[in-house]
């Protein structure tokens, strides 16, 4: 059992107690919390765990806060400290808005604005858009395109490219956009082989 203080997700709930095993990583805990709070459309890369530890040996309690990497194992870390001397907190990274035109999923829809992390990949953005529609489609059926109608320019992003960083480098953001498109048969596999 791990108690995670998650006010960043829900201001009126102090913490959430999770039953996880020792093999669960910090990123697993973040995904589980987003699921418990019914926020599967939120970018998990925006969130991370910190561990607050109190050391009382000197007589004066000293508080240390550690940022946990994605592979850290909260249950193992918690077992290294006396009960009540540590706690986990969910924190949020800065991100940015990415607008994705998604009419290939729903004809009447214009776009989805997603708050994503700088480390969120094109593949993960595609998955987030699919989650917004509760789609059971595999993300590999779709690609994210960078489009500039004024210059008649478009290109499919590789699955590991970072849309927020690409967007930040656009010379005139009002002329560029991201479009979600359904892949033609064999297109996705071909692009993966080229990488």
Task: Give a quick summary of the entry.
The protein is α+β, with helices and mostly antiparallel strands and 195 residues long. It has five helices and ten strands.
Features:
alpha+beta, Ubiquitin-like (UB roll), 2 domains, elongated, RA_dom, Ubiquitin-like_domsf, Ras-associating domain-containing protein
Strand order of the largest sheet: 2-1-5-3-4
Category from helices, strands and their pairing: alpha+beta
Strand proportion, as a percent range, falls in 25-35%
CATH fold assignment of the largest domain: Ubiquitin-like (UB roll)
Shape: elongated
| Radius of gyration based on Cα positions | 20 Å
Helix residue percentage: 10-25%
Q: Averaging pLDDT over every residue, what do you get?
A: 88
At the first level of CATH, the class of the largest domain is Alpha Beta
Any low-confidence stretches, pLDDT <50, length ≥5? 188-195
Major β-sheet profile: 5 strands, mixed
Provide the domain count. 2
């Amino acid at each position: 059992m791990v108690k995670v203080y998650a006010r960043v997700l829900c201001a009126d709930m102090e913490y959430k107690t999770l039953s996880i095993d020792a093999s669960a990583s910090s990123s697993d805990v973040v995904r589980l919390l987003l699921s418990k709070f019914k926020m599967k459309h939120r970018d998990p890369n925006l969130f991370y765990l910190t561990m607050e530890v109190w050391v009382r040996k000197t007589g004066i309690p000293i508080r240390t806060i550690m940022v946990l990497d994605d592979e850290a194992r909260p249950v193992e870390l918690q077992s290294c400290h006396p009960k009540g001397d540590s706690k986990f907190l969910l924190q949020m990274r800065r991100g940015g808005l990415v607008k994705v035109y998604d009419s290939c999923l729903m004809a009447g829809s214009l776009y989805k604005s997603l708050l994503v992390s700088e480390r969120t990949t094109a593949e993960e953005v595609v998955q987030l858009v699919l989650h917004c529609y509760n789609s059971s489609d595999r993300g590999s059926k779709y690609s994210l395109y960078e489009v500039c109608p004024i210059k008649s320019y478009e290109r499919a992003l590789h699955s590991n490219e970072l849309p927020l960083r690409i967007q930040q480098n656009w010379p005139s953001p009002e002329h560029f956009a991201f479009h979600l498109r359904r892949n033609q048969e064999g297109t996705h596999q071909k692009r993966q082989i080229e990488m």
